Amino acid sequence: MSTATADLTSPHGHEPAPEYSVTGVPAYKLAMWTFLGSDCFFFGSLIGTYMSCRGKSLNGPYPLDVFEAAVTSLSTFDLLLSSLFMVLAVHYAKLRDIPKFTFWTVLTMIGGAIFLSFQAYEFTSFVHEGLTLQSNLFGATFFVLTGFHGAHVAIGVLLLGSLLWSVRGGHVVDAGITTEVIGLYWHFVDIVWILIFTLVYLLEFTS
Amino acid sequence: MATPAHADPAVHPASTAAGSENQSYGAWLLSWIMTSDHKRIGILYGLSALFFFVLGGIEALIIRTQLARPGLHVVDPATYNALFTMHGTTMIFLGVMPFSAAFFNYLVPLQIGARDVIFPRLNAFSFWLFLCGGIILNVPFVLTPFVDMRVIPDGGWFGYATLTEKEYSPGASIDFWVCGLQILGIASMAAGFNFIVTIFNLRAPGMTLLRMPVFTWMTLVVQFLVVLSFPCITIALVLLLFDRQFGTHFYIPEGGGDPLLWQHLFWLFGHPEVYILILPAMGIVSEVLPTFSRKPLFGAPFVIFSGITIGLLGFGVWSHHMFTTGLGAAADASFAVTTMLIAIPTGVKIFNWLATIWGGQLRLTTAMLFALGFVCMFTMGGLSGIMHASPPVDLQQQDSYFVVAHFHYVLFGGAVFGLLAGIYYWFPKMSGRFLSESWGRVIFGLVFVGFNTTFFPMHIVGAAGMPRRIFTYEAGLGWEIPNMIETAGAFIIAFGVLFFIIDLIRCMMAKEMTAGPNPWDASSLEWVCDSPPKVHNFDITPVVYSDRPVFDKTHGLGPGYSLPVGHEHIHIPPPSLRPLFLAIAVAWFLASWLIAGQAMMLGVVSALLATAFMLYSCFSWFLEPGH
Amino acid sequence: MNRPGFQPSVVWLTLSTVPALPRFLRMLVPRFFFARLVPLIGLCLLAGCGGSTMSTFEGHSDLTKEILDIYGVIFWIDLALFLLVQGILIVAVVKFRATGKETTLPEQVHGNLPMEIGWTVAPVVLLVIITVPTVSLIFESQAQAKDDALVVNAVGKQWWFQFGYPEYDFETANEMHVPLGRQVDVRLQSDNVIHAFWAPQIAAKRDMMPGRVNHITFTADKVGEYMGQCAEYCADSHALMKFRIFVDTAEDFDKWAKHQASAQAEPVAASAGFQAFQGATCVACHAIEGTSSQSRIGPDLTHVGSRGLIASGILENNEANLRLWLKDPAAIKPGSKMPNLNLTDEQINTIVPFLSSLK
Description:
The complex is a heterotrimer of chains A (207), B (627) and C (359). Helices cover 73% and strands 0% of the residues of chain A. Chain A is mostly helical and 207 residues long. Chain A is elongated and about 55 Å long. The termini of chain A are far apart. With 627 residues, chain B is an all-alpha fold. Chain B is 66% helix and 1% strand. Chain B has 18 helices and 4 strands. Chain B has a two-stranded parallel sheet. Chain B has a two-stranded antiparallel ribbon with strand order 2-3. Chain B is globular and about 75 Å long. Chain C is 41% helix and 18% strand. A 5-stranded mixed β-sheet of chain C has the order 3-2-1-5-8. In chain C, strands 4-10-9-6-7 form a 5-stranded mixed β-sheet. At the B-C interface, helix 4, helix 8, helix 9, helix 10 and helix 11 of B face helix 3, helix 4, helix 5, strand 7 and strand 9 of C.
């Protein structure tokens, strides 16, 4: 919608011209912010559930029986690194440097895919050690929490894939804004992982 | 109107087709199915809500008939339990919420001077998904004669674990409930994002936040409550689904879980939900009272900030639904205090409404009568709420008919009265025709008298010890007379609603469109538009100079608004089937879980197909030209 | 739930240790008003409605009386506010109704700051009047029970109540006896779904949560029989899940408890009735102390003949009703966990007098 060149001064001339008060934030960006606010409550509920069930498992395997600090630290580092790539992808999308944008986006996706592979490895090895959804409360809360986070990462990879495809195919009007919006999502999912890593993993090793 | 608009007919064939005389029935139907016009979606929401409202009402009538006398067996206990579960679920999720959504959709873009919501197809998607959820919740009624297990949801509308676990509810009843609510939650959240962005970004020039109509303000608060509270119930339902279908123990003490976790997650959603139901009605009343008093809303900023405060506090009071669960004295005391605090902004609103009508020139139209009825009845509900905000008193009132009386005063005397006021107020805008004022008075009389006859005695019978959700009761406890009166009242309400629907149909069929743009001498921007408004709402986007633009301009109290001279390019998105496709795909995907509960492999196959359809819908949505 | 050693936060500690204030507030309107006038209003409204022992308008324990006091305070504040709001509304509608002949607009008042402050602050004062005694009673009523309190383990079942008396070492069902003037600590539990224990005139209400132990402590002050009912929806027969509390004098209670704790005499196990009871597989679920029947799935039947009601407080305990119950439990209590054993008339004729004889 374009606004007509309106005379913003009052027709009677005794009131100052009102400010055009629309926020100036692009719609998709604002929508993403509201979505992330909503997602805070989504993960808040999941993490709250995990924390309220923490230490209430009636039988093993317990967290320290299965956690491998090195593996999870590595996958965390990988996800953090992918956030850096994401920043660079946004930067070059705004500069409309499509080759560099493509390069960094692909790297971000690879980062996400590696994280998911780590998670797949972790899940299978945990199951081999006897930790399942049904085995105890720790298993149930752990798999549901990290599973939903993994699903968010997977959706992120899909979003980046379709972004790449649509930017290269010329289907988006403003690649900069679109990439930035997906970047917001990517960073949010990353931050949530830092929270999960701290509360689910690190807390076990400190206590 | 200052200048005829330059609308491009090529990009909105539906708008031209809609008005033409010789179009076929099929094309007309398709134009509604493919619509992304916020006004049409609003009407679709309204009609579906009315349908479900009648359905919930019929359920209520059966419940009341069963309770008319002690020891009656109109329906068997299992059916009775299903009926009150579905009555609650229907009225909340399929009655009041979509009825409010009808007003959000129809009015918010008009009130802020926009041509549509920001994402029109997402809006259509929300509606179709809501409809899918409503159908899935109600399909068990049709299914039940053909299957030999319980399928109608029967766990109560707040579905407390462990009753909802597989061990105690082995059929598919809870699965239908979980699936339906999950779908409705996604639909509401999608609408929430849409309206938040719309309200922030699409306001006309000059429409600062404090110049926004109070109804739009309350919509904004409600959308924030929706997007922040629904994730909590989403998680609660997911965990329940895992318990039921994958053998986890989130809510099962035998496996280390805790049924209280459900209650915390549920009420963390459930209490904001109460404000999701009541705030839109408060917004409507804040529009209707000033218009028919010919005065501005008294202390408008205070009314708005009270609404925001109520919304914020709504997240800090959930445990007052759990005073009897044994949370400990400190928790009980804290939640008692936060709950008491809510009385303050609520009181501020009520006194501001009273001050609004004080000194005015009151025109007692039907809309005004319902708005006054709202103030009157909602006050009752608020005051009885203060009683069980005190945990010791709640130890007597919790789960008794006293509480049933309380929340019906809030949600029927409050929300529904407000919505009825809204219908009488905006019907001329939506249709160009008036609802009959003489019928309206009769309908108001029936609903008001019927409402109080039904629900006031519930206070007494509750205090006399009658628990809620009982399919029968014994004689000799002093419960007979009030129950008989309540049942009679329910039928009085039913007559009121029946007359209302007849009048609605009668007036919609009337040929004459006599309303004109501003029949009530009201104040907000929707009254600049034609009645009913054009597809693109405004030929020229108005510029706003005050919080009562139309009233100020009409009465020369100030510039109000102006319509700048010039041409505007109007882009109306073409009709689309993608929202319907995506809604079906999402509902199908979630319903696959329901299937998986009975036949795992079939469910998995169904989920995979649904995912494929979902991906197709997403991409074709994205690539659809003209958007 | 009592948490021994729990330290309430400073604010609540301050509030709850100023007993003078709540008492002062309660004194503002004499107890006569709450204990007598409120029920009287109820009675007038209902022509005898408040008469049953399910009515919350009367209290016969320290807990329920104090709840009634707070209810009274809120009731009068509510009534005043109700009259104020509706009064203004009615006066405004009558006084300011448009005549249709107005030529000018009414004065366009946009607001008034002092008024806004006024009706923000005034409710705060009223809420403090409600909150102070509320918070004080919360801590008072949820305090740890005294050491000499009588402990009763109440377990919610689908759909009946099990009452255990660890002090006397016996279990009974649906009829709970308590001594007059001695504190009772009811420990509420459930091993299935959530139930709620509600005896309006003696114990008020608290939930029976699976996996938790909740407490109600009270001291009853009037001898009598009081009704109670499950208040949390628990599926099919929720409406038929009732119980009784009998407040006895200390001597009567002791006599009752000792009798309930006694096993049945030896001849019972050898009687033809017990043989039939055993033959009909009743022993799979029920216990009769003094016999080989020891299962605790259903109600303890050791002294079933001494109870006034059967089927968790819905049928009078007589042979005709026992007969009906044994014939088809689900016909009386929908969804009943006791299956229809398809007993022959002969079996029923033997078992019914046997059960009645278990005094």
